[in-house]
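Problem: given the chain below (656 residues), write out its structure.
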Amino acid sequence: MKPNVIVALLVGLVLGFVGGRVSTGPSTKSEVAKAAPNSPAAPAPGGRRPVDPTVFKVPIENSPTHGSADALVTVVEFSDYECPFCSRANVTIEKLQEQYGKKLRVVMKQNPLSFHPRAKPAAIAAMAAGEQGKYWEYHAKLFANQKKLDDASLEQYAKELGLNLDKWKAELNNPKFQDIITRDQALANQLGASGTPAFFINGRFLSGAQPIANFQALIDEELVKAENLVKSGVPASQVYAKIIEKGSERAAPKAQPQQPAAKVQKVEIPSDSPSFGPATAKVTIVEWSDFECPFCSRVGPTLAKIKENYAKDVRVVFRHQPLPFHPNAKLAAEASHAAHEQGKFWEYHDKLFANQKAMDRASLEKYAQELGLNLAKFKAALDSGKFKAKVEADMAAGNALGANGTPTFFINGREFVGAQPFEAFKRVIDEEIGKADKLLAAGTKPEELYAKLNAENVANAPTAPAAAPGAPAEPPVQKVDVGNAPVKGDKNAPVTIVAFSDFECPFCSRVVPTLKQLEDQYGGKIKVAFKNQPLPFHANAKLAAAAALAAHEQGKFWEYHDKLFANQRALDRASLEKYAQELGLNVDKFKAALDQGKFNAQIEADMAQASSVGASGTPTFFINGRTLVGAQPVDAFKRVIDEELKKTGGVVADSK
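Solution.
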């Protein structure tokens, strides 16, 4: 996400103090993270920052590699070509390569941050150069010319390196490069390396553009270990694999701070934001929304009902929060403002939500024509990026308030998240009308009403109760939509368990008997929904997920699910087809679904949802929105389920 100029400068200043570590992700918000390691470690000598001794399993296959396969130390770098801290670190890495020679190899992973608009095109250009054997030469060009990453400059670097220009240009559109970026970014989040630059030195995490001495100290430690392995008989080419074979596959989840019981914010109303309802309304609802978000679409009828029932008392203000994984959302937001300029925002707004799967440029122009807009003026606004700054200002304001998911509403400043039903809005609206009536009776002018109500709500916001000393904070309850996921159990069950899982993950396999035990004990009181989160270093997991959904299409998801977990080491294409045949599926239909990538979009949506709710590893469960991470014992699940049943008046299960 690209913030406006002021926000960008502020972020830059902050990053100057924290070494460039910014947390990003399919999530929708970039936040500055602390530069300290994930886990405590003994103080390092000489004032060095301590390094966590944890070794992570960081795969290096199918990534650009510089150095000998016999190198005793492997540095895996997650980097961004537009990040100034990555540029500084690149100088350090080059010096280390000179110093350690054949003992050191460097592996590059792509993590272009969302607020660096040219980072992803640069990464793709480098990988396209790699197809002609010149990845590292192009990589060096990019860091040497970090302020010149426009398309013309990228092409110029290709010419300077003597690449076959036609071939290079054709490769820029190769979808495999986007897949690599998605894979690398998912791996970065999985390992807790959410910012750039991030390094794993023989699997040990070193964050940020640190002094060269910090790299040297860690490399020297790892060299001693590696040399001992070689002396014990391990071939040099197998040292890295040996070191990481029992490494951690994911970073430990970070404790999340206790959230206020009711979040209330001071929310400004820009004069150029579209709205309906009187400016002197007793209640102002500010909505942050995304035209490509299905949940935003669902709330449309609710807003129409609010308009119908509270025509004189409620004003709704629309602000933009196009999410980074919705490719057409940002241009659609700009198009809506081009329509707003001609007095038809809400008509255009309705067109977009009615046609969420058709928001390419041609479709946007078509809707403008259908609404009788001046098409030349509309096109000129899009071509010139006239409303780009407006959209980005809305995004920055939304992020500052924590409105980093969509839809998010602020009702007189009171946060209200998700596509909730009319009755839920009505309860809050009626409370706020009561407050407004008292202020008006006391002499508040109608034009001052919103500012007064917003200020009073902020002042009176409740705070969360203090946690018991030493008690770990439970992450806040999240709205985790089941959507079109396969579900097992009574549809009216009071407890819903949403599982984010990976068919190739051994921990996911271990929890299958636990879930069966819970189903036996709780019967119709629980239902389980399955979401796919194939991890990037599990080579067969994504295809297995697609195969399971192909079985689901034929009514046999759970039978196929059990087959996959019972045969985790045999998830190749031939085996997947064999399991389909054993279950009596229509194999031709099953094969066609895999060949056509029929369920790829659903899997990607599941993965994006996992990132947005913080499910960075597998398995992760949400029990009525409460987070439970890992293959935990049955009692851990029962504790949460029983608490949720008590809330709904259900009966807890007998201990067995």
